[in-house]
Design brief:
This is Nitroreductase family protein. The chain is of the alpha+beta class and 223 residues long. It contains eight helices and six strands, in the order ααβαααβββαβαβα. The termini are far apart.
Amino acid sequence: MTQVHQPLNDFIEYPQTEMLERADANYKQVLRRHSIRKFSDRAVPKAIIEKCILAAGTAPNGANHQPWHFVAINSPEIKAQIRHEAEALERAFYAGRAGEEWLDALKPLGTNADKPYLEHAPWLIAIFSQKRSEEEGEQKANYYVHESVGIATGFLIQALHHAGLGTLTHTPKPMSFLSKVCGRDNSNERPYMLIIAGYPSDDATVPEHALQKKSLEEICTFL
């Protein structure tokens, strides 16, 4: 493939004082991002979800193969089906399949096998990773798939928060039922994560444990 490059003409350089202000403003904004488990059923326009998914699609990824697919679910019937399948797995999880250590770690968050938000929230976004991509009718291997899809998922969560929505990550194990429910039942794809998105309900809460973030000294080393 011939290499074609274009000038970087959309980079904006800010004065360093403004850079720090922007970095601080972003930090303060992401501090308000919380995983919530009580959602309103208020409608969220499809156009907002579309823009957030487009933002996720700009994430850096291996060889620019963009090894992901997003399924945005608004259908009450499909959401009910997902809840039914997910809660069946969660009941086994909380009944002991997770192991005592994992269940002890979850206790401060107050989670359990009941997942009503899978129906109440207006949108569920199922994210799939792809082992291979197709270009001009030819199959080609994807690279750094897990890392690439993880970054795109982070972009999506940030975009949804920036737009003014609450979110929750959900990873039932195993997630294979999502492939069938979403019509993505093929050997090339596997479910990566389920994102719940919508407005918080009036009685939404945040566990105090979830507000305890590590200090800069604990998460970073400068050399």
